[in-house]
Amino acid sequence: MGECRTIIQIPSVTGLVDHICLRNVQLPLPSGPDAWHRLGRRQPCTMSLKLSWSSVSTSAKEDDVSLSLDYGKLYQRIDKLVQEWPNPQEGLENQISVVDIHGQPANGSPDMGHGEDISLLAGRIGSLALGYLHERSRAINAIRPGAAQQDFGQCEVRLHLPKALLRAQGGLVHRILQVLGNNQVDATAAVVIEDEFRIENIRCHCIIGVNTHERVEKQAVMVSLKIKGQGNDHWRKHFLDIYQEMTRVIAEEVDKTTFKSVETVVVFIARLATVDFGNDLVTVRAEKPNALAFAEGTGVEITRSRSFFC
Question: Which residues contact 242 (CB under 8 A, 6 or more apart)?
Answer without folding.
Answer: 277, 278
